[in-house]
Design brief:
About 25% of the residues lie in helices and about 30% in strands. The chain is α+β, with helices and mostly antiparallel strands.
Length: about 475
């Protein structure tokens, strides 16, 4: 820790360079900037035509945050100084960065504070920094959750200096980002003030401001057609609330938070209480319709019955499957959640239960089958591979990247397909069912195979695969 008192310290910047004289910093040099309108900020110099010397470019401060060189009058390096020796002197009150001579253009900064004393900048405030290693820097404050916690953003991709790297800070000039945040904070304060005593539209809230009253009335209507309907079924997803917005009660859904304030999606599909109740019925109808316990648990409440059916169905094609291969698969159960019975899945290593949103016993069994198929393929080692050659193939904006046939230890086959573009992509593995290999000819095999891996969806069609003699031999024809 340095010995001098940052509260009484000032820094005098005396080595400014003039942009009008085409005197520019080195590529990547971080600088203190004086703008043509007299404000001060900072930035990392990036010329437009590097390595060619040019005065055109920008000083980067962060992601989508930069200052064009045309706005800058003068700059002063921040990278070239180590103040460690000066800061170890407890008597020092001013540090000159560069010689202080007659007619030298000079700017002084003081009023330094420290996060260690509970002094943090305002959100999005751009600051001059004295670092713990004695260096100088600048950055935009971003507050994190927790007391005196945050970081100073100084470059794209949220590159930042954490608070433990910064010895002291002082604000530089206001800018558009800081002003926008200041305006947003004023709006948040006004919103909190308005919402202390909200009003209620008598037509919209004629049954009061308890949301459960509206859910109860909607449930009563739903049960006329769906006797098994429950509140838990209706409230799956994001439940509706009655909350104050701009000083008035509204029906709304919470959709996250920003700067510690909940973000509310307001209901705007009507203007009366009864219209909202009808909306609740319509909004929940599909969920309730697909929660009929007679359909959902038609084979009873013993989970093993459903798992056994899934196992037997999968084993018809995945003949090598045995139950030992399922030890690492997802675990299933039937449990009561908020008063409703649900199919539950739990992934290995995860302590949390997840509700299977399956409206029927058949749909749940299909879901388990997919898990068992993956487990079966993972337990069957690959013994040989073949990659059919192909030229550039575009599939709905993606390019086919890989198409590989695998022969498995059991004598069965699977195929892996991968496609993508510069930004994203995806892959899938398909098991080639025994039904395909019951075909007498390679041509008939392809007809059956392409029902599983259609050419228009995954790149290679009959015209690509039929002439391929190596693939034909690889598949045993």
């Amino acid at each position: 820790m340095f010995a001098c008192d940052y509260k009484t310290l000032s820094l005098s910047f005396n080595e400014f360079h003039n942009v009008e004289k085409k005197d520019m910093p080195k590529y990547g040099e971080f600088c203190l900037l004086e703008l043509k309108d007299g404000r001060y900020t900072g930035g990392d110099w990036h010329p437009n035509e590097y390595p060619k010397a040019t005065i055109k470019g920008k000083f980067i401060r962060g992601t989508a945050d930069s200052v064009d060189a045309d706005e800058v009058a003068k700059w002063h390096s921040l990278d070239s100084y180590d103040l460690s020796n000066c800061l170890e002197n407890e008597e020092i009150g001013n540090i000159n960065l560069g010689p202080k001579e007659e007619d030298t253009y000079s700017v002084k900064f003081k009023g330094f504070k420290s996060t260690r004393d509970g002094k943090c900048p305002k959100e999005d405030q751009y600051c001059l920094l004295i670092m713990m290693d004695g260096g100088l820097a600048a950055g935009r404050w971003e507050k994190y959750p927790g007391k005196n916690n945050g970081a100073f953003i100084y470059a794209p991709a949220l590159s930042s200096y954490s608070v433990d790297k910064v010895w002291a800070w002082t604000p530089l000039s206001s800018d558009q980002f800081f002003e926008m945040e200041e305006e947003a904070e004023r709006e948040r304060k006004l919103e909190r003030k308005l919402n202390k005593n909200p009003s209620a539209d008598p037509e919209k809230f004629k049954y009061g401001t308890d949301i459960n009253v509206y859910y109860d009335k909607a449930l009563e209507k739903l049960r006329k057609e769906y006797p098994w309907a429950t509140l838990a079924q209706m409230k799956k997803g994001t439940p509706w609330e009655i909350v104050p917005v701009h000083g008035h009660y509204v029906f709304g859904q919470a959709c996250g938070s920003y700067k510690g304030e909940r973000t509310i999606h307001e209901w705007k599909y009507g203007s009366t209480a009864d219209e909202f109740i009808d909306f609740l019925c319509k909004d929940a109808e599909d969920r309730v319709k697909n929660s009929n316990p007679e359909e959902k648990f038609k084979f009873g409440m013993d989970i093993e019955v459903y798992l056994e059916k899934a196992y037997e169905n999968v084993k018809k094609d995945y003949r090598w499957l045995d139950k030992k291969m399922l030890k690492d698969a997802c675990q299933y159960s039937i449990k009561q959640v908020d008063g409703d019975w649900e199919f539950i899945e739990k992934y290995k290593g995860n302590r949390h239960d997840f509700i299977c949103e399956c409206g029927s016993a058949e749909r749940f069994i299909e879901r388990v089958e997919e898990e068992y198929k993956d487990a079966a393929l993972n337990a069957n080692p690959v013994v040989d591979t073949y990659e059919p050659p192909f030229k550039s193939i575009e599939i709905r904006g993606w390019n086919l990247e890989k198409y590989v046939f695998y022969k498995l230890k059991s004598g069965d086959y699977k195929v892996f397909v991968q496609a993508g573009d510069r930004v994203t992509g995806g892959s899938r593995t398909f098991f080639i069912t025994p039904y395909c290999f019951e075909a007498k000819t390679y041509d008939e095999f392809l007809k059956r195979y392409l029902e599983i891996v259609p050419g228009e969806s995954f790149g290679l069609s009959r015209k690509n695969l039929l002439p391929n003699k190596e693939l034909k031999k690889f598949l045993g024809y």
